Amino acid sequence: MSRLERVETGLGEECGVFGAYDIDGHDVASSVYYGLFALQHRGQESCGIAVTDTCGKRKVLFKKDLGLVNEVLDEESLTNLKGNLGVGHVRYSTAGGSRAENAQPLVINYVKGTLAIAHNGNLTNAVELRKELEYTGAIFQTTIDSEVIAYHIARERLKTGKAEDAVKNAMHKIKGAYALVVSSPRKMIGARDPFGLKPLCIGKRDNVYFLASESCAIAAVGGEVIRDVLPGEIVTFTKDGIQSDTTMALKPEKQARCIFEYIYFARMDSVIDGVNVYHSRIVSGKALAESYPVQADLVVGVPDSGLVAAKGYSEYSGIPYGMAFHKNSYVGRTFIKPKQSQRESSVKIKLSVIEEVVRGKRIVMVDDSIVRGTTCANIIKMLKKAGAKEVHVRISSPPFLFPCYFGTDVPSNEQLIAHSHTTEEIREMIGADSLGYMKVEKLKDMVGDLKYCDACFTGNYPMDVPGEDISHAFE
Which residues are part of the catalytic machinery? Predict the structure, then answer.
């Protein structure tokens, strides 16, 4: 782009997935649409819906493209997407570039019919698997690892009598993080990686079954959450109900849910694996107040994921909680700005400070993370320009020290400010009066007995990972 550039703000998550199957045969495109709308925070780059009629010709109809849900899918396209089984996807690119062909769901035509697949996560062995497929004649249309999964499911389907068995056989080959929603001609199938790194839950409304990355999406379509898909579980939905296969499951002590779902990614009104996200963030704020007390007049949170942790800090410390920022609701995590406006902080496009709230006050500012440090530094400058006497920064995650290989857009070590600087050095660089990170040992308080992955903070990965960044290996 010559005069324009993309600006990334904050971390990115790989994707959100949603599926709907109406046993009574009614169209589900509108339900998938609203489900994706509720998951928009998980990906704002591209989206799509694929539907099929399990009672008719079983032809797959789909619409997908770059853009937000309400930009790609309009009333006319939803009307044309007729079918009682649907799969939807919202995407943020961490593996594979930003291009229309990488939008999901992937629709695969093969000898047994048509599969539609939506994937959230990243594979750690995608490079090897893709090379193997290419040497057997496979031709790839995208640069995403999700296509590797689709190929393996399609190939395994030729050897098995049931689509869910093909998914299971593919799971024996793929490694990494994944939540899958797959539609075959007569079935909806959900699968979750054995570690449970990526969330997936089951819901129901009358005779419609749902699969979703988060419970908030099921609530958005008027459904009730039945339960979470277990780590390593494959669930199959047919006209006869639900079937479950847990033979791929790991022992609970080996499971490793992504802790960042609770810190940042998930919507605050979601419940993941039985843990209320709002409650977990309140707990994180209280832990910060306990670990890093300070004399201050007001606690504020950086929207959106810092707000609840700030409330928790306020409750524990007794310091009043306030709203110091106005967030532009029409700006996502990625947006375009003219290059000639480089001197204008991109943060100002997204956030503005309410001067009356902060003027003359000592502020505790709670945010979810510091990646490169530039965004945090700009927000502190804005607060002090608005008259804040002091700004004490509290971060509801530990310092990022290691890259993520499972679908969280944590950059390479060289770009992580905490990898090469001490906390005191970071405090000086961002202009804070004090700085405190969540202590690693306090993370467990957020999720109770759940086993979780904190590798981006500790380097303790739950499985073998590549020795280098593979997020753009197929570009």
Answer: 15
Per-residue model confidence as pLDDT tens digits over 346-363: 677 788 999 999 999 999
The 10 Å Cβ neighbour count of residue 315 is 15
DSSP-derived letter for residue 366 is: E
Give the tens place of pLDDT for each residue, 104-118: 999 998 888 899 999
Strand ranges (E), 92-163: 106-110, 113-120
Rounded Cα distance, 72 and 62, in Å? 11
Q: Is 368 helix (H, G, I), strand (E, B) or coil?
A: coil
In one-letter notation, the amino acid at residue 431 is: G
Query: Strand, coil or helix: what is 317?
Result: helix
Helices then strands, counting H and E runs in the chain, come out as 17, 25
As a whole number of Å, the end-to-end CA separation of the chain is: 18
Q: Do 270 and 214 meet the contact criterion of CB atoms below 8 Å apart?
A: yes
Nearest to 227 by CA among 201, 199, 196: 201
> What is the spatial distance between Cα 395 and Cα 67, in angstroms, rounded to a whole number?
31
Burial class (CB in 10 A: 0-12, 13-18, 19+), 438: buried
Q: What are the backbone angles phi and psi of residue 52, rounded to the nearest 5°?
A: -145, 155
Percentage helix, strand, coil for the chain under 3-state DSSP, each rounded to 5? 30, 25, 40
Q: What is the pLDDT of residue 1?
A: 34
Tokens of 195: 């570690």
What is the pTM for the complete model shown?
Answer: 0.91
